[in-house]
Amino acid sequence: MNLAAVLLCLLVCFTAVTSDRVYVHPFNLFSFNKSTCEELESQVQEGKKTFVPISIESNSTPAYEDDLNDKDKLEAPSLNSWGRQKLKYMKNFVYVLGVRFYRMLQKAQQGQNVLLSPTSLYGSLVSFYLGASNKTAADLQRLLGFVPPSGDPDCTSRVDGHKVLSSLRTIENLVKSGDKDLLFSKMLCLFSAPGIPLYQLFMEDLLPSADALYSRAVDFRNPREAAKQINAFVEAKSEGQSKCLLTDIDPSADLLFAVDVHLAVNFKQASQPKEPQEFWVDSNTKVLVPMLSVTGTFKYKTDASGTFSVVEVPISKTVLLVLLQPINGSDLEHVESQLPLESSAWLQELSPREIKLTLPKLTIEGSYDLQELLANMELPALLGKGADLSKISDGNLTVGKVINKAFFKLTGDGTDQPEEPAAETEDVVFLDVTLNKPFLLAVFEEKSRTMLFLGRVTNPLH
């Protein structure tokens, strides 16, 4: 082989090895390309097929629902190099938007427990993006964090919502991957006014976004009866997990959207002390709550000003729990006001420490109307009466509530633990970390480090 051929061979090999390191703009990982732009034109006629949801009072299961909830069709993409790059950027988009929503709730619900699911809220907006056109689609794309690197007017300047939902579903499947001590479920429901046709393609597009997808017709003109019917339906379909989804309904609405996400973890390494322990709701109020105790090597830090500490604990094979508590006399309200949550710096630079951790057993939930959150962000028109949702239905839809309900439960295996860690020796000193006053929590999927839940615990008994 001559020298030129050898050099050519080496160049090809080097290119193959380093090709995965080529920078790709995050927008291009999720956008349409030229070939898919052409395919979109051929899907126009297919997208016009409609169906009318059956009444919520019907006991039958519609044929379209059997197809939609066929679990064999829920195939998550593999985590190849492209998939990993997508998740790297997706976690940042989810985090930024989730924190923005949390800031709204932090102000509106001072002194109360708060729990939201950034992945669920983000997925809800992506769902409406798939049903939107023109300015509404552009505004939703911008809110989701996708800004095209160039101003090309064709469809390559648009994000492919299917790719985004697929990445979100990959994260959720990673959470559920073979861990028997964890239960994760997500249910999506669309309730429409009687006789309103919905595009079949839109419903099929939502398939990757939940474990179960239901669509029913409800007469919103009687708000009290409609709320009663919807609550009963959701409770039955969730097998009693979700109760009291709604308290009121806008009678002028044509569409109501609801997502219910549950995560329950049995933290096997944690034990439960025999006696409840004190938890200070505020400086004057204490309650007795069941606690969990666990000893091990966990990541930990205190901030430079000494006002809060952060500990990261793997509570299952696929889920991390991050706990932030005020220290040295500071309170949570002060920490929240000073903490730049918009930056993920508070989650970084943690170091391994030998820790004895004591925290409350947790059962916390939150239910929020995305419409209200958008209004608080001065975006009331985004899904308002003027929104172009012409890919959901051919009529002018009025979207009512967009409910996102989140539930997180943490328990231990119920056994008692010795007063002092068995592993403690003269050479090992365990840091005692006890969460006995209001604190922040965040739950992450372990591989991608995507934030699944973000919340505040002011009283574990509520």
TrEMBL record:
Location(s), subcellular: Secreted
| Gene Ontology molecular function, alphabetical | serine-type endopeptidase inhibitor activity
- Which Pfam families does the record match to this protein? Serpin
Alphabetically list the UniProt keywords.
Disulfide bond, Glycoprotein, Secreted, Signal, Vasoactive, Vasoconstrictor
Q: Which GO terms describe its biological process?
A: regulation of apoptotic process; regulation of systemic arterial blood pressure by renin-angiotensin; vasoconstriction
**Which Gene Ontology CC terms are recorded?**
extracellular space
Q: Could you tell me which InterPro entries the record lists for this protein? A: Angiotensinogen, Serpin_CS, Serpin_dom, Serpin_fam, Serpin_sf, Serpin_sf_1, Serpin_sf_2
PROSITE patterns to which the protein is assigned, alphabetical? SERPIN
Q: Which residues form the signal peptide?
A: 1-19
**Domain annotation Serpin: ranges:** 99-460
Purpose: Is a ligand for the G-protein coupled receptor MAS1. Has vasodilator and antidiuretic effects. Has an antithrombotic effect that involves MAS1-mediated release of nitric oxide from platelets. Acts directly on vascular smooth muscle as a potent vasoconstrictor, affects cardiac contractility and heart rate through its action on the sympathetic nervous system, and alters renal sodium and water absorption through its ability to stimulate the zona glomerulosa cells of the adrenal cortex to synthesize and secrete aldosterone. Acts by binding to angiotensin receptors AGTR1 and AGTR2. Also binds the DEAR/FBXW7-AS1 receptor.
Matching PANTHER family: ANGIOTENSINOGEN, SERINE PROTEASE INHIBITOR, SERPIN
**What family does the entry list?**
Belongs to the serpin family.
Name the record gives this protein: Angiotensinogen
- This chain is encoded by the gene named Agt
